């Protein structure tokens, strides 16, 4: 028993230490000139660039703008994806009419639609939000549709015997049964939302984290570019952790 606990702790410590070992090797390689600074700046230089952005307020302003774009796109795409997934999951007629065009659009690389979005919606905020919303909608659509179709039929039979109305069945059976898989779709959608934002913020952006990266590219500030990418990664990890915490709280009854 003790050896098993020690082995578990050992691997946990190794997982925790591995990123720091990589950073130490990276810093050492930069200090000895093994890694060219104009290709990959040292971690210390990237940290200094980040501190510079924090002190002058540029990072806070960029995070606020990027956060609003993701939130708007997530809400819009989430509502569309869940609504269509619910309709298709509950109705064979909706499945026959809605699912084929949805699958056709899903087959398109949504980031490849940027030129079309620019023609249709201009270069303002709207195409950025819509690009995020488009990427977000499909994971939620597929997970909602699949979750509803996988609800145990015996539960519906029991509800019918008890005389449940449609809304009682929806509230008491469908929503609790589908919630775990829908929350998985939310986590997938968040990852796609940040990925979409990275590209969307390069559409003539004048604010946001993407703008900081594009502006740094023009001035050959590789340290700021890498710092911006790290911020995107941390935002993705952070929002995923929030959804996981909400998932554990919302589904604690399953324990």
Automatic annotation (TrEMBL):
<keyword id="KW-1133">Transmembrane helix</keyword>
<dbReference type="Pfam" id="PF00528">
    <property type="entry name" value="BPD_transp_1"/>
</dbReference>
<keyword id="KW-0472">Membrane</keyword>
<keyword id="KW-0813">Transport</keyword>
<protein>
    <submittedName>
        <fullName>Alkanesulfonate ABC transporter permease protein SsuC</fullName>
    </submittedName>
</protein>
<feature type="transmembrane region" description="Helical">
    <location>
        <begin position="73"/>
        <end position="93"/>
    </location>
</feature>
<dbReference type="InterPro" id="IPR035906">
    <property type="entry name" value="MetI-like_sf"/>
</dbReference>
<feature type="domain" description="ABC transmembrane type-1">
    <location>
        <begin position="59"/>
        <end position="243"/>
    </location>
</feature>
<keyword id="KW-1003">Cell membrane</keyword>
<dbReference type="InterPro" id="IPR000515">
    <property type="entry name" value="MetI-like"/>
</dbReference>
<comment type="similarity">
    <text>Belongs to the binding-protein-dependent transport system permease family.</text>
</comment>
<dbReference type="GO" id="GO:0042918">
    <property type="term" value="P:alkanesulfonate transmembrane transport"/>
</dbReference>
<keyword id="KW-0812">Transmembrane</keyword>
<feature type="transmembrane region" description="Helical">
    <location>
        <begin position="12"/>
        <end position="35"/>
    </location>
</feature>
<dbReference type="GO" id="GO:0005886">
    <property type="term" value="C:plasma membrane"/>
</dbReference>
<feature type="transmembrane region" description="Helical">
    <location>
        <begin position="105"/>
        <end position="123"/>
    </location>
</feature>
<feature type="transmembrane region" description="Helical">
    <location>
        <begin position="224"/>
        <end position="246"/>
    </location>
</feature>
